[in-house]
Structures are given as C-alpha cells and as structure tokens.
Specification:
Layout: H1 5-36, H2 42-73, H3 78-98, H4 103-123, H5 132-139
Helix pairs in contact: 1-2, 1-4, 2-3, 3-4
C-alpha cells in the first residue's frame, strides 16, 4: 500500500472512527445493563440484544484500530481488515437507517467507512515499499 499523506489521513480517521465506536459501544452496554435489571422476560432479553449490539460496535472499533496500525506500518493484511471494518460499519449503518434513524446523522457515521473504501479502491494491491517504479525497473 502507498504510504503517502492520504494513507496517514485514512489511518488517523480510522482511529477517530474507532474512538467514536468505543463511545457508542459503551452507550449500548449502559442501555443493556439498565434493561437487564427490569422486568421478568422481555426487558432482559432486549438488554441482551443491546449488549450484543454493543459488542458488535466494539469489534468494529477494534478492526478500525488494527486497520490503522496495519496501514500506518505498511502491512499487506491491512487491506482485508480495512474492507471488513468498512463493510461491517456500512451494514450496521444500513440496519440503523432501516430502523428509522435520521439520514443526516447516519451520513456522518458513514463518512469514514466510505473514505476507507475509496482509499482501498484507489491504492491498488501494492504492498508498502514496492510500487510501479520498482516493477518497471526490474522489467528493463
């Protein structure tokens, strides 16, 4: 992958997305713990669903951190982790949109995954340190 300015910006944005994801996960865990102590059956079940959603958001946040580290250090596996994090994040945002969330609020949360996907599509399959220049030199 390229190690230019755009790569560094995408890595920093990914860490920021992870930080906001951790905050969102903590909110889901708080909702889940509030609901677990109420009612007999239905509210504790909804509380467990909230915990599961918080765990999913926390896992996506962890993927963003791993992706940012891999991107910053030029690891070849960072592409797969980035695709996974961005696609899962977009699917989660789509499910929230279906549930009736405001599209303006969702656009902000979808911005970083779309930037990550754009970066991955435009960066090509080149690992760090080897680019077209290296390939053309060896072909001559």
């Amino acid at each position: 992958m390229r190690r230019g300015f755009d790569t560094k910006v995408v890595a920093v944005l990914s860490v920021a997305q992870a930080a906001f994801g951790v905050l969102r996960a903590m909110g889901w865990f708080q909702i889940g713990s509030d609901l677990l102590g109420r009612g007999l059956v239905l509210l504790p079940v909804i509380g467990m669903v909230a915990f599961a959603r918080g765990a999913l958001v926390a896992a996506i946040a962890a993927l963003y951190v791993i992706f940012a580290f891999g991107l910053w250090t030029g690891r070849s596996w960072a592409r797969g982790v980035g695709w996974t994090a961005a696609v899962l994040n977009l699917l989660l945002a789509a499910s929230v949109l279906i549930q009736g969330e405001l599209i303006v609020r969702l656009l902000l949360s979808m911005l970083v995954p779309l930037i990550v996907i754009w970066h991955l599509l435009t960066s090509g399959d080149e690992p760090s340190g080897t680019g077209r220049a290296m390939q053309t030199r060896s072909a001559s």
